[in-house]
Amino acid sequence: MFPGMAIQRDFKAMEKRRFRALSLLEEGLSQAEVARRTKVSRQSVLRWNQQRLAGGKQALRAAGRAGRKPKLLPAQEQELVKVLVAGPEAAGFSTPLWTLDRVATVIRRQFGFACHATTALRILRDRLGWSCQKPVGRALERDEAAIATWKRKTWPALKKRPAPKGARSSSSTKAA
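Below the sequence we write its predicted structure tokens.
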């Protein structure tokens, strides 16, 4: 696990474990035995049972996603995708290269809230499923056919070849 990476929790599995614990309690097993079988602490079993008594089984349902709600709504995400696909020049930047700072600037301009480059990365990677790409650094004038010819004909003629057997070595450690 890398520092700063969030652990994804399986909320459905956690809910399923809570309901299994309740059914074991209803069968008459002790809290300690239920805790052992569900691999949780006895205090968790106690808390779940108290929640069930106070609010019924509904109180133990999964609460949904954890953490702060995203500021970008799904419609805004789609709008952001359209801006990104149109290119940085269409968004008012001088060169045709998206950087995280530029994406953060677009989010700030379009949707009116401050966005750090790291947040822009998380939006692109986690919410939109995009990945960082490095542009190929090749000249526009590059002639692929001429390069292939050079590699096939000129380079082998320039390449060093091993000395023929029996030829004298330039090494001072080898006997003459």
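The first helix runs from residue 11 to 26.
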